[in-house]
């Protein structure tokens, strides 16, 4: 067992610059070696000079022996951040030394949170998520609630809209300080009129940091309507802001693009025919209290009653590239154009000299159609609404995009699959049960703040400060599979690193060039490219949105672990948010299952665990401690029950005429199905200590080891009640997809647990090594060991990492040579995929870069194979065929 003294984990700022921690503090996760730390209270944080820093610590995951595997770390907002930190073990932690503390006090009907900079009341029932906010002794905002509307038709008008308000059904404290507090609020939207229909269940987390006036609000909802009759026409978060000052001392601030702000007063004193004086004008522009009206020059005080009050302001971001701002004097008066721009930063403020409120939305323009509203700023109480779906946009239309085209049976559907790659089935293209998450910042003020302070908050809302362990620390911890740090000393390795960089840069650039934005789309990438139209195949069946096909999530996260690149982290995080929420069902008949790639994220009839797998979420949770991502993984703990309701291979099953899902004999694939179950059980066990998940994980591992042909069996019969496989099945059946949805990564972790003596699963290690050795072996070698040569051997480059793993574990250089040979044959469609060409109008709408033969399938698997091969057999590149030398010659132009 390692001693506690070995713990020394360096942390760096993701963007390599000290951020402003006053906007909500920061939290992150750090990996720890097995046996090194039994209690996170022993952990402490020191800055680069070795000075202890107040910190809050808690376990995110544990090793099988009960020691801490990942620890959560939180810093408050009360001090200047250091350039970097280290997590070490001390006799005493540093949290009790903090002058700033956040406290949570239980009340009869909820809680009060005091950060030292503000006090926030959070009820446990009723319409309000936030009852009140106080700064000092003044109440500056009240009644924070969710609002929505829907209609029964998709046309963009307001006929028959039913308005609803979020109704809180419960509130629990998940963390109560001293530096970080988290409250979880659950509820559902309830119609204000009619029969009081309830729909759109939601979860809101309020995250507070000691010393911070700003707190984070993380809102997730599940869409549980009928796509044919429920068209969501607005969804927003609304606060009421009491106003006490005269209209000329009331202020509205709206963030535009690139840090710019609209600064206006409800009753303006600038630009008038009569000048009130420079001090009056300057005070109003800056948001300070103006001098008393008797001191105004030019008779302005006497004439002020003729100056109209502008009580309503609206900013609308209906596309990714354009926003508009309007204002009006009253609800029955017209809107007046104020400004137009490109990509608003998504923050609004309303208040006066006695207090005010700012709310910002992360991903504001990227998640369009969004909006910001200030209403009734000329009254005693204004409202500030942040629209997650703008009421001025066309209603949300989630109907399936075509009528089925006459596909009435499996034969028709498989035939259609041959032309559009779309796996259609009547009734399966429904959005009922999918979800969406937004992150907001909420900041109460004692008075209207300087605009540069609002700009600072808007910047931290758009790009949240994030601490992360260095790549060196992550690598030393041996976490998340087989990878190593970039090494360019050898030109051949450097050439492969250039491949990796090219693909990452290309996809990061494609997001903006192709405008992969929007409420339901932001975070995903497309599957395949159409070189004739110079566009991704956004409208061609299964070639459109990728939905985690062949593990781009794992590619991005593994790339981040080894490089530490901020742009890769941000793309991976957005993908985790999207694929975990939108591409997975959280309620309804397919709860726990994800949806294969399609024109719409929910459109394909293939509902499978390979998309919902926690293998795609664990890295985000461990690096950030994000509670919502934890929820997404833990809600899957009983996902093995889905095999009772739907057979993933029902359309192609050879025994389809006789197979019926039976509780004690469910057909479960040992590739895409079991890898997802194993990742689920592993995540649940390490996060919660659930012994049921532990037993199912280790039990099925042992059963795979006991099967006559191990992983080559392809599919085994699963007893749902016992959580075990029938080990009598004796057959050989291989799918080229089995290993490319996280199986490689989860098996690597599980074998490491076996090798280190932390778990026992007889035969599992040998079964996995056999699969890795034989998948790319010659037919004769396969027949000699399996009795037959399996069909279905494809994706050779992707599977080169299996041979590499076997080579590393057995020391067999022939397997390394086989791995590199398969790798340099290239991916399924890659061709010359590592060179982009600029396409210009009029061939396209706007200039774009294209790599005609690069599919996301190949990009993800090529990326993972490159990373893992370099880690496992990188020192044997010299035995590879001419591939690496050819790459170097191309780059050198020889």
UniProtKB/TrEMBL annotation:
<feature type="domain" description="PcRGLX/YetA-like central beta-sandwich">
    <location>
        <begin position="102"/>
        <end position="458"/>
    </location>
</feature>
<dbReference type="InterPro" id="IPR048329">
    <property type="entry name" value="PcRGLX_1st"/>
</dbReference>
<dbReference type="Pfam" id="PF21345">
    <property type="entry name" value="PcRGLX_2nd"/>
</dbReference>
<dbReference type="InterPro" id="IPR045793">
    <property type="entry name" value="PcRGLX/YetA-like"/>
</dbReference>
<dbReference type="Pfam" id="PF21346">
    <property type="entry name" value="PcRGLX_3rd"/>
</dbReference>
<dbReference type="InterPro" id="IPR048330">
    <property type="entry name" value="PcRGLX/YetA_2nd"/>
</dbReference>
<dbReference type="InterPro" id="IPR048331">
    <property type="entry name" value="PcRGLX/YetA_3rd"/>
</dbReference>
<feature type="domain" description="PcRGLX/YetA-like C-terminal alpha/alpha toroid">
    <location>
        <begin position="465"/>
        <end position="877"/>
    </location>
</feature>
<feature type="domain" description="PcRGLX/YetA-like N-terminal RIFT barrel">
    <location>
        <begin position="9"/>
        <end position="87"/>
    </location>
</feature>
<protein>
    <submittedName>
        <fullName>Tat pathway signal sequence domain protein</fullName>
    </submittedName>
</protein>
<dbReference type="Pfam" id="PF19501">
    <property type="entry name" value="PcRGLX_1st"/>
</dbReference>
């Amino acid at each position: 067992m390692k001693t506690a003294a070995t713990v020394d984990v360096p942390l760096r700022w993701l963007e390599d610059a000290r951020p402003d921690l006053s906007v909500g503090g920061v939290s992150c996760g750090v990996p720890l070696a097995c046996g090194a730390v039994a209690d996170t209270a022993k952990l402490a944080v020191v800055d680069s000079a070795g000075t202890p820093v107040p910190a809050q610590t808690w376990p995110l995951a544990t090793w099988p022996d009960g020691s801490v595997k990942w620890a959560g770390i939180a810093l408050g907002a009360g001090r200047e951040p250091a350039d970097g930190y280290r997590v070490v073990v001390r006799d005493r932690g540093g949290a009790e030394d903090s002058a700033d503390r956040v406290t949570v006090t239980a009340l009869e009907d909820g809680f009060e949170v005091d950060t030292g900079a503000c006090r926030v009341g959070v009820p446990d029932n009723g319409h309000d998520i936030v009852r009140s906010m106080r700064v000092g002794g003044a109440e500056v905002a009240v009644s924070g609630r969710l609002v929505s509307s829907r209609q029964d038709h998709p046309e963009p008008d307001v006929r028959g809209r039913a308005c609803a308000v979020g109704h809180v059904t419960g509130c629990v404290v998940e963390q109560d300080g001293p530096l970080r507090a988290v409250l979880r609020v659950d509820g559902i939207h309830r119609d204000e009129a009619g029969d009081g229909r309830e729909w759109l269940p939601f979860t809101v987390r309020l995250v507070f940091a000691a010393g911070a006036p700003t707190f984070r609000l993380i809102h997730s909802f599940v869409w549980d309507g009928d796509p044919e009759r429920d068209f969501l026409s607005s969804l927003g978060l609304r606060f009421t802001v009491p106003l006490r000052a005269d209209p000329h001392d009331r202020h509205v601030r709206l963030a535009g693009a690139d840090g710019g702000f609209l600064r206006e007063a409800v009753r303006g004193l600038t630009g008038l025919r009569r000048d009130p004086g420079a001090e009056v004008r300057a005070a109003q522009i800056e948001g300070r209290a103006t001098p008393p009206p008797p001191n105004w020059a030019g008779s302005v005080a006497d004439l002020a009653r003729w100056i109209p009050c502008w009580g309503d302001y609206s900013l609308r971001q209906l596309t990714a590239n354009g926003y508009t701002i309007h204002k009006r004097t009253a609800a029955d008066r017209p809107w007046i154009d104020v400004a137009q721009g490109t990509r608003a930063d998504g923050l609004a403020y309303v208040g006066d000299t006695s207090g005010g409120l700012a709310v910002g939305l992360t991903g504001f323009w990227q998640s369009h159609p969004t909006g910001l509203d200030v209403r009734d700023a000329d009254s005693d109480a204004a409202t500030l609404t942040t629209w997650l779906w703008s009421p001025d946009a066309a209603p949300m239309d989630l109907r399936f995009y075509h009528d089925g085209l006459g596909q009435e049976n499996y034969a028709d559907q498989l035939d259609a699959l041959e032309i559009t790659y779309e796996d259609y089935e009547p009734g399966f293209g429904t959005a009922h049960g999918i979800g969406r998450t937004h992150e907001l910042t909420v900041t109460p003020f004692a008075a209207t703040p300087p605009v540069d302070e609002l700009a600072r908050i808007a910047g931290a809302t758009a790009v949240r400060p994030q601490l992360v362990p260095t790549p060196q620390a992550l690598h030393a911890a041996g976490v998340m599979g087989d990878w190593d740090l970039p090494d360019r000393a050898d030109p051949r390795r450097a050439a492969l690193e250039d491949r990796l960089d090219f693909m990452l840069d290309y996809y990061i650039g494609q997001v903006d060039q192709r405008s992969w934005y929007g409420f339901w789309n932001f975070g995903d990438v497309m599957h395949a490219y159409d070189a004739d139209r110079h566009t991704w195949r956004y409208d061609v069946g299964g070639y459109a949105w990728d939905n985690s096909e062949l593990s781009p999530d794992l590619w991005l996260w593994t790339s981040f672990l080894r490089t530490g690149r901020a742009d890769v982290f941000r793309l991976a995080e957005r993908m985790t948010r999207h694929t975990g929420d939108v591409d997975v069902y959280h309620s309804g008949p397919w709860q726990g299952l994800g949806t294969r790639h399609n024109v719409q994220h929910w459109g394909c009839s293939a509902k499978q665990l390979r998309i919902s797998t926690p293998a795609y979420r664990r890295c985000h949770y461990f690096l950030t401690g994000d509670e919502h991502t934890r929820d997404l993984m833990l809600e899957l703990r009983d996902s093995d029950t889905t095999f009772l309701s739907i057979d993933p291979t029902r359309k192609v099953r050879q025994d389809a005429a006789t197979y019926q899902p039976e509780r004690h004999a469910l057909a479960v694939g040992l590739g895409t199905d079991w890898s997802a179950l194993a990742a689920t059980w592993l995540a649940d066990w390490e996060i919660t200590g659930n012994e049921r998940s532990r037993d199912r994980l280790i039990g099925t591992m042992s059963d795979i080891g006991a099967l006559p042909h191990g992983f080559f069996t392809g599919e085994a019969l699963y007893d749902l009640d016992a959580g075990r496989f029938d080990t009598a099945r004796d057959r050989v059946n291989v799918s080229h997809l089995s290993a490319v949805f996280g199986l490689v990564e989860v098996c690597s972790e599980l074998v490491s647990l076996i090798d280190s003596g932390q778990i026992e699963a007889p035969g599992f290690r040998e079964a996995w090594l056999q699969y890795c050795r034989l998948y790319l072996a010659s037919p004769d070698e396969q027949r000699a060991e399996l009795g037959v040569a399996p069909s279905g051997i494809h994706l050779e480059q992707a599977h080169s990492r299996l041979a590499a793993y076997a080579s590393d574990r057995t020391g067999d250089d022939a397997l390394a040579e086989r791995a590199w040979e398969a790798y340099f044959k290239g991916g399924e469609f890659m061709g010359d995929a590592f060179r982009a060409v600029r396409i210009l109008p009029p061939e396209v709408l706007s200039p774009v870069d294209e790599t005609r033969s690069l599919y996301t399938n190949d990009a993800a698997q090529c990326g993972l194979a490159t990373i893992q091969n370099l880690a496992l057999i990188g020192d044997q590149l010299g035995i590879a065929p001419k591939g690496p030398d050819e790459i170097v010659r191309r780059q050198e132009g020889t």
